[in-house]
């Protein structure tokens, strides 16, 4: 092995405690970075999952213009165009077909406005949490006059299971008022005010009838097998659905505030990393200077007998490199186990609220290959950068002065 | 005889103002090939300072140091390093060795820097170990050697690369008298047989007794530059 590298390798073991502490500092920085990254990824996934998998779906298709106006007239007449494509698409896990319109509900006691969804119970259960959210009564079976409402709305209307509810709405193509009588068959609780206080679900077939549509629907919501596919707003699925007067979009476009939030998460990781790196590099510089001062006489001798300044730079940089190498090996092993542990156990985060949606699951850390490539490499790079100053200092040692600083 | 090192009007000042120390004040000496000389004088008279200047470890405040015909002022730090590596061997008073290297590695250090092939290195190292009575100590680290052994390793390192000149700053100061004498005899032998140039700084009577030239320093000035007749060839 090259003499300078051999020297560097042996030198770092001369003061075992200092080397250990420096490595500990570097390894802890790496571990903190990896965990922060893992938690952030976990948090992002949880947020995305909560917003998409609760009701909205990872992506949706509508007739052009519907998303801007929610005009009941703007419905997809031939739903099979969309449905066939989704059926054939292996990337799709499930889809559900929905009609959507504003409606007035009246009970014996009270009246309230809300959003009426006509859904196919079976399909809906595969895409949203509607079925799981049921706290009382029974789910939609497809029979006429079944209606599900939220707990808050049930309170407002003072209705119980089996009570009558009259729904009034305006039909498509002309806006004729239409009324239908339902019997409360189920009460749900999503835990989100928006849904629990104003959403009503009935069977798709009946909703078409009272809306005056023969077939068709306002919305097709769907989920991908792999949630990552939904992140691409221009994915093959989205592009193939967006033809003619139909437009499809993933949550990235449907929920711009969420995309913005995720960008912020990336930025905050950068800040955490920056601060960690600053602290770590000060620690490295400090410990390297201590080790250099201790060896200044020895460096004087080495330079006196012909070691070039550039070789001194190489020596110090190599020492830093070896320190970093030992640290990241240790740091990666520990990180691996921590990431693995918390990816199952999760980190309890208490209750968080985001966009009116409360998130109360544990955050499960998420493994990513970058945690074991980019992050360790950046620790090595940081260490080398921090070592530049001590290395240049060493190269400028004047042998006669160093020898004078003897003992 | 040709001049290996020439110096003229060397001044080396440390500090400034009230604290100004004139370690050397207008000193001119030339070093001829094959010399065996000692710089002597009381403590603080400037011996080490002069030796460091001669060896290019330091640059003078005023005056010139010319190493093998080149003024050191015109040499880069790197070129000066290479010059020291290839032409000068240093032995200091103590702690000459790199602690993490074994005896053999310390001795071959300069040759490794020079890129001497490994078979040649081994040959020369073992020759040196033999000459200096260090057989069997090749694998030890400096901490496992006595002061005298360490000093001999330092001498071996200085000589093994076959420099033109060896500068030794009080090489015997840490040695008992017997070890000191055997070291000196060996150096004298190298001087006589191979024409290697030696300059010492010393308080040691044993060195003074053997030196052909004594440069007396006092307060940074040459008091006397004495060629000893009894040694004249
Ligand atoms: N780097 C330095 N900084 C400040 N003063 C110095 C420095 N080097 C030497 N001196 C001063 O220069 C003077 C000469 O020092 P030098 O080391 O050359 O003496 P010396 O003759 O070798 O003494 P000794 O026999 O004790 O080794 C001393 O007064 C010393 O204090
Ligand atoms: Mg001295």
From TrEMBL, chain A:
> Its GO biological process terms?
lipoprotein localization to outer membrane
**Keywords for this protein:** Cell membrane, Membrane, Transmembrane, Transmembrane helix
Family membership: Belongs to the ABC-4 integral membrane protein family. LolC/E subfamily.
Q: Where is the MacB-like periplasmic core domain?
A: 19-236
UniProt keyword Zinc-finger, yes or no: no
Q: How does it sit in the membrane?
A: Multi-pass membrane protein
Naming one, the record's GO cellular component terms include:
plasma membrane protein complex
Task: State the organism of origin.
Answer: marine gamma proteobacterium HTCC2143
Q: Can you say what this protein is called?
A: Putative ABC transporter, permease protein
* InterPro entries tied to this protein: ABC3_permease_C (IPR003838), Lipoprotein-release_system (IPR051447), MacB_PCD (IPR025857)
UniProtKB/TrEMBL annotation, chain B:
User: What's a Pfam family this protein contains?
Assistant: ABC_tran
Top-level taxon: Bacteria
- Sorted UniProt keywords: ATP-binding, Nucleotide-binding, Transport
Q: Which CDD domains match?
A: ABC_MJ0796_LolCDE_FtsE
Q: Name one GO molecular function term.
A: transmembrane transporter activity
GO CC entries: plasma membrane; transmembrane transporter complex
Domain ABC transporter span(s) in chain numbering? 5-232
Question: Is ATP-binding given among the entry's keywords?
Answer: yes
Q: Does the keyword Nucleotide-binding apply?
A: yes
Which SMART domains does the record cross-reference, listed alphabetically? AAA (SM00382)
Per the record, the similarity remark reads: Belongs to the ABC transporter superfamily. Macrolide exporter (TC 3.A.1.122) family.
Name of the featured protein: ABC transporter, ATP-binding protein
Organism per entry? marine gamma proteobacterium HTCC2143
């Amino acid at each position: 092995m090259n003499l300078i590298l051999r020297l560097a390798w042996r030198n770092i073991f001369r003061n075992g405690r200092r080397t250990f502490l420096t490595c500990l500092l570097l390894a802890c920085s790496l571990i903190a970075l990896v965990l922060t990254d893992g938690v952030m990824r976990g948090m992002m996934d949880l947020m995305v999952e909560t917003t998409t998998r609760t009701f909205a779906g990872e992506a949706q298709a509508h007739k052009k213009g519907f998303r801007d106006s929610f005009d009941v007239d703007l419905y997809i007449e031939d739903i099979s165009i969309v449905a066939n494509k989704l059926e054939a698409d292996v990337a799709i896990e499930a889809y559900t077909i929905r009609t959507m319109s504003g409606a007035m509900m009246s009970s014996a006691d009270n009246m309230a406005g809300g959003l009426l969804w006509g859904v196919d119970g079976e399909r809906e259960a595969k895409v949203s949490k509607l079925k799981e959210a049921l706290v009382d009564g029974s789910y939609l079976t497809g029979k006429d006059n079944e209606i599900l409402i939220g707990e808050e709305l049930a309170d407002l209307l003072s209705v119980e299971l089996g009570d009558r509810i009259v729904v009034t709405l305006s039909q498509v193509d002309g806006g004729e008022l239409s009324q239908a009588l339902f019997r409360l068959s189920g009460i749900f609780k999503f835990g989100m005010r928006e849904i629990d206080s104003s959403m009503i679900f009935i069977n798709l077939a009946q909703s078409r009838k009272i809306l005056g549509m023969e077939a068709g629907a306002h919305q097709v919501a769907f989920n991908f097998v792999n949630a990552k596919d939904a992140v691409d707003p221009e994915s093959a699925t989205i592009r193939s659905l967006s033809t003619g007067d139909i437009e499809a979009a993933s949550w990235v476009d449907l929920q711009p505030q969420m995309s913005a939030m995720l960008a912020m998460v990336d930025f905050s990781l950068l800040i955490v990393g920056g601060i960690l790196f600053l602290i770590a590099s000060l620690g490295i510089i400090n410990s390297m200077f201590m080790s250099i001062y201790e060896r200044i006489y020895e460096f004087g001798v080495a330079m006196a007998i012909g070691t070039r300044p550039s070789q001194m730079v190489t020596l110090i940089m190599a020492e830093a490199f070896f320190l970093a190498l030992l640290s990241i090996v240790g740091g990666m092993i520990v990180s691996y186990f921590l990431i693995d542990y918390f990816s199952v156990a999760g980190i309890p985060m208490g209750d968080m609220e985001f966009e009116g949606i409360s998130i109360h699951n544990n955050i499960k850390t998420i493994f990513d290959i970058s945690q074991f490539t980019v992050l360790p490499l950046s620790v090595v790079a940081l260490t080398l950068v921090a070592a530049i100053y001590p290395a240049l200092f060493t190269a400028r040692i004047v042998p006669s002065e160093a020898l004078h600083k003897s003992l | 005889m040709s001049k290996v090192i020439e110096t003229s009007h060397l001044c080396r000042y440390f500090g400034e103002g009230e604290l100004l120390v004139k370690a050397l004040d207008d000193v001119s000496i030339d070093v001829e090939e094959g010399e065996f000389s000692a710089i002597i004088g009381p403590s603080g008279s400037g011996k080490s300072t002069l030796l460091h200047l001669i060896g290019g470890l330091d640059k003078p405040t005023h005056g010139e140091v010319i190493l093998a015909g080149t003024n050191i002022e015109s040499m880069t730090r790197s070129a000066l390093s290479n010059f020291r590596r290839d032409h000068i061997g240093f032995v200091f008073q103590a702690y000459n060795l790199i602690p993490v290297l074994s005896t053999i590695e310390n001795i071959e250090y300069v040759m490794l820097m020079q890129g001497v092939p490994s078979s040649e290195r081994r040959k020369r190292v073992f020759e040196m170990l033999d000459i200096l009575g260090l057989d069997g100590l090749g694998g030890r680290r400096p901490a496992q050697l006595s002061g005298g052994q360490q000093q001999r390793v330092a001498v071996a390192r200085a000589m093994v690369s076959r420099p033109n000149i060896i500068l030794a700053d009080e090489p015997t100061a840490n040695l008992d008298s017997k070890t000191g004498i055997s070291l000196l005899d060996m150096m004298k032998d190298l001087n006589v047989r191979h024409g290697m140039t030696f300059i010492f700084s010393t308080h040691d009577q044993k060195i003074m007794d053997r030196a052909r030239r004594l440069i007396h320093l006092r307060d940074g000035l040459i008091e006397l530059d004495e060629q000893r007749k009894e040694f004249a060839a």
